[in-house]
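Q: What would this complex look like in 3D?
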Amino acid sequence: MQSPEHPFDRLQDRCRKLGSIVCAGFDPHPGDLPAAFRTDPPVTGVRRFLFAVLEALADVVPVIKPQIAFFEQLGADGIALYFELIREAHRENLLVIGDIKRSDIGSTAAAYAAAHLGPTDGSAADFVTLNPYLGLDGIAPFLEIGRKTGRGVFVLARTSNASAAELQDLVIDGVPLYERVGAAIEKWGSAWRGTHRFGDCGAVVGATHPEQLARLRAAFPSTFFLVPGFGAQGGTATDVVAAFRADDAGAVINSSRGILFAGKGRPDADARGVELARQAAIDMNREIAAALLRRKAARAGT
Amino acid sequence: MQSPEHPFDRLQDRCRKLGSIVCAGFDPHPGDLPAAFRTDPPVTGVRRFLFAVLEALADVVPVIKPQIAFFEQLGADGIALYFELIREAHRENLLVIGDIKRSDIGSTAAAYAAAHLGPTDGSAADFVTLNPYLGLDGIAPFLEIGRKTGRGVFVLARTSNASAAELQDLVIDGVPLYERVGAAIEKWGSAWRGTHRFGDCGAVVGATHPEQLARLRAAFPSTFFLVPGFGAQGGTATDVVAAFRADDAGAVINSSRGILFAGKGRPDADARGVELARQAAIDMNREIAAALLRRKAARAGT
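A: Here is my prediction, written as C-alpha cells for the whole assembly.
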C-alpha cells in the first residue's frame, strides 16, 4: 500500500499555493445570518449562505473550519448539512478542519474517529480538533486512522477564552500545563513527519497571549499550529506572527465571525454579505502577510 | 416562574424508588449486537435492539447513559436515533445522561447546550457529560440552561482509562490536577443545591482507582458522582462503595458492555440477549448493594 500524502504537507502546500494562511471558521449562528438567509427551519437558509460563502472563499483561503456545535444545534438535518458542507468544500479544493473538540477513549474515540476521519465519500474532514484531558488514549485512534488516510488532528494546548487559565496555566515543576500538553503533542505526532518536518498532531494555541504562542513555537518546531482568537477575540496580526516558524511555515490563523459575518449590522448585508466575507478574508491575510514581512525585515536588520 | 425540581434530587429519588444505583451505558458497537439485530444499514437493527433493552431495563435501573459517539458514527440517522432514544427513555420514566463529553466555550458551548439540554419534545438529556480543560467558560452555558429546565451536568474529574494519569495526575502544589478539577466542580455546582444537598454540577470519577474515589468523596460531599469503569474495566463492587456518602447517596455506577452486551458470545444471545441485559443490571445492583451493606456493618461494628 502506498503511503498517503502527509496532512500537514497538504495544508502547508495549499497555503503556499494560494499565498494565504487564513482559516475561515464556519460558525453559523442562525441569528447572525443576513436577513435574506433566515429561514424556517433555519437549516435551509444556513445551507444557502454557507455554500455561497464557500464558493466565494475557495481561491482566497486554503482551509475552512466548520464548528460542529452549530450544526448539532440544528438536529439530524444539521449533522447531514455538516457532512455535505465538507464534501462541497473538497469539490472546491478547500481543506477542512472539523472543529469537533471531541474527548473520549478507546472504542468510543475509535467510533468518533470513524465518524469524522473515516468516510470515503468526500465528507471526512482533513483534520479534527481534539481535547487532551484523557491523554493519548483519546488521540491515538484518530492518529491511527489518519495515518492510513492522510489526515491529521489539532489538539487543544492553550485556548483563547477567559477561563482557559483555570487549568491550562497551572504550573507543574515550573512548567505550565499547556506547555506540558504541547510537549505531549509534539511527541504524539513524531511518528509521522512530512516534507515540511511537521508531525501529524497539530496544536490549538490561542492568539490572545502572544508570549505563550512564542514560547510554544520555539519549544515545538515540529508542531503545526491552529490559532483561534484573531479579530473579535482580540488577537492582532502582530500578535499572531509568533505562531510561524522563521520560514513563515507552521500555522493557520482562524477567524470565524470576522469573515463569515463580515456584513453583520450593515444595511447591504443581504446583497453583499458573501462578497464582504471574501473581502474580509483577503484583508486579514494581507494584514498578517505584512506583519510577517515586518518580522523578516526586523530580523534582517539586526 | 416556579423553580424546576433539582436534577440530582430527581436522580437520587429515582435511585431510592427503584432501589438501584446502576446506570446502564448504551454504547451500541454495531459489531457487538446479537446476530439477529445486525442489519444493513446498521441503524435499523441498533434501534430495535436498544428499544428492546430499554423496555427491559425500565423498572430495574434509574438511568441510562447513551454514548453519542456510536450514534454519530451512524451519521445523521444515528443522531436522529440518539434523540429518539432519549424521548423513548423518558416515556419509560428512565432518566438519561447524554455521554457527549463536549468541550467548547462561549456561544459554541451555548449551541451545544441548546442542542442537548434545550429540546422541549422530550429529547433533551437530563444530564450531559462535559470536559473541564477550558475552564468554567465551557460549563457555564450548560448550567445556565439547566437551572431553567431542571437539568445538570457531570464534568470529567478522574477518568478510568490507562492514559488518564498523563494530565490528570500531575501534581500542582501537592494537589493532583483531578482533585483541583474536583474542587472547581464542587464550586461550579454550589449555586443551586437540592434537598439531598448536591449541587447541579456532578463529577465523573472512574472506579479503577478506589483510593482516588475515596479521597474525592471525602473532599467534595456536595458533588454527585458518575462512576464508569465497573466490570469490563476492572472496578469491583467493593471498589465503588467509596463513591457513596455515608447515607449511601451520591453516586450512580455505570456499566456499558457488561449490561448491553451481557449475552455476547453466548449461543442464545439472539433469543435471550435482552433478558440477559436485564439480569446483568439486576445482578450488578445486588452486588453493589451487598457491598454497601458490608460497609455499613463494618462501620457499626467499629
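A: To summarize the key features: Chain A touches chain B through 51 residues (CB under 8 Å). The mean pLDDT of chain A is 96.
Q: Very helpful, thank you.
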